[in-house]
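Hi there,

I know you've been waiting on this one. I reran it after we fixed the sequence typo, so this is the corrected version. Both the input and the resulting structure follow.
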Amino acid sequence: MTKQILIIDGQGGLLGKQLVDAIRKAVPDAEITAVGTNSIATSSMLKAGAHQGATGENAVLVAVRHADIIAGPVGMVIADSLLGEITPAMAAAVGSSDAVKLLLPVNKCNNIVIGAGGKSTSELIGEAVERIQKICG
């Protein structure tokens, strides 16, 4: 069964773009939906190969209902993070979703994950992709 993977990102969408690219290579049959908090982030993830994309709060609220896996920066579950791009409704929707959530510990915007270490974005994406491969079988 094809897994529905939702990637959420904001600002320039660089993390989301890298996630989409790595997942497409590692799990080619996965269905990837990209939701950006702004159109630049969405566009970046679509260019990386997401199957479909949408932008904004309502897109997050709808997309989390259909996802088996949600991946993105840890800020996607913290209201007002990503310089205010994550609304309280978005954070609540992601946090209450039944999907497996892969939260990449991007230590920015006063959200610091203790114990996450100083891994590079590439290393974090590698770990996320390994987990997605295990979940997808």
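Quick highlight: The CA atoms of residues 17 and 44 lie 6 Å apart.

Best,
R. S.
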